[in-house]
Hints:
Blueprint: H1 3-14, E1 19-22, E2 27-30, H2 36-46, E3 55-58, H3 73-80, E4 87-92, H4 99-102, E5 107-112, H5 116-125, E6 129-133, H6 145-152, E7 158-159, E8 172-175, E9 181-183
Parallel strand pairs: 1-7, 3-5, 4-8
Antiparallel strand pairs: 1-2, 2-6, 3-6, 4-5, 8-9
Helix pairs in contact: 1-5
Amino acid sequence: MSFWHIKRASSVLRAGGIVAYPTEAVYGLGCDPWNANTLTRLLTLKRRGVEKGVILVAAAFSQLRPFVEELDESLRRRIEACWPGPTTWLLPGRKDVPFWLTGGRKTVAVRVTAHRQAASLCEAYGGALVSTSANIAGRPPARSALGVRRRFGTAVDYVLGGRVGGDRRPTEIRDALSDRVIRPGNP
Length: 187
């Protein structure tokens, strides 16, 4: 991973582009979470409805604060004990979090990634990013830069080369208030 490639990818994100990048298990597609036009374009590429919501990935919990309500101390400790790592939590979203991120729910899906390259991208960008698997809805996600190009051609504005982490399945998703597993992760 070169700093130049991370810097280039973060510039594409700031300009309203879509970037593919490696995560813990698969390649993700990311964009500026506040940019409705870019997220609409991303969901159109995936053939995925906005009502599903998306995951936000960050390098640190501080990058997620604009999206989530304040957490009580015990809940925050429980969540931070899993981070950085492959657990995505559904947390109470702030009232101003856009519909296109939550799918109309009162929660927002967030993760502090343990994947070094994905975290470096968030740091260079200066905040959390949308992180949805690089696939057409219902089909297997890409696990390489070549896989992204095969699925999307030039419709993705920048593909950040690198290796996905060792996880075999996308991250576990848990509801923070009920501790219920919404999507199982790796065994």
